[in-house]
Amino acid sequence: MTAIRGRDDNIILIFTVNNEAGALANAINIIGKFGFNMKVLRSRPIKDADWEYYFYVELEGNECSDEGRQMLSELKDYCHDLKIVGHYSGEKKI
User: Fold this and answer.
1) Does residue 2 belong to any structural domain of this protein?
2) Could you say which of 14, 21, 39, 76 has the lowest number of CB atoms within 10 Å?
3) Structure-model confidence comparison of residues 20 and 5, the more confident one
4) DSSP structural state of residue 46
5) pTM of the model as a whole
6) pLDDT tens for residues 61-81?
7) Contact 85, 14 (CB under 8 A)
8) Residue-wise over 63-76: b if at least 16 C-beta within 10 A, else e?
9) Angle (deg, nearest 10), helices 23-33 and 66-78
10) Which range marks the domain in which residue 34 is found?
């Protein structure tokens, strides 16, 4: 895992949800429960899997914080696959 980052950092996650009613809503609620702001949520079809999708999410926050670790732990209960794809800074440089 990477070093602890500042509060203005952004996390990129990719996940699939379990095939049950309300699984995506549960995942989104968990993200909000721990104070992470979703900047982007996109769904994309999974190749060679009819009617199955993965979700791409950009969050403001720090996954190395206590809240971040708890959020990821709870997301695992609702997500079939969960990956941290990357990080980027929210700082604007002129």
Assistant:
1) no
2) 21
3) 20
4) P
5) 0.80
6) 988 889 999 999 999 988 989
7) yes
8) bbbeebeebbebbe
9) 170
10) 9-89
Tell me, yes or no, whether 20 lies in a domain: yes
**Number of domain units in the chain:** 1
In a domain, 46, yes or no: yes
40, HSE (Cβ side, Cα atoms, 13 Å): 12
Residue type, 9: D
**Token digits for 88?**
């980027």
Instruction: Give the span between the Cα atoms of 70 and 42, in whole angstroms.
Output: 23
Q: Indicate whether 3 belongs to any domain.
A: no
Q: Which domain CATH number covers 58? A: 3.30.70.260
Q: Which stretches of the chain are assigned E, i.e. beta strand?
A: 9-17, 37-45, 53-60, 79-89
Two tokens, residue 38: 């979703």
pLDDT range class, residue 54, cuts 50, 70, 90: very high
Q: Token match 């999410």: residue?
A: 57
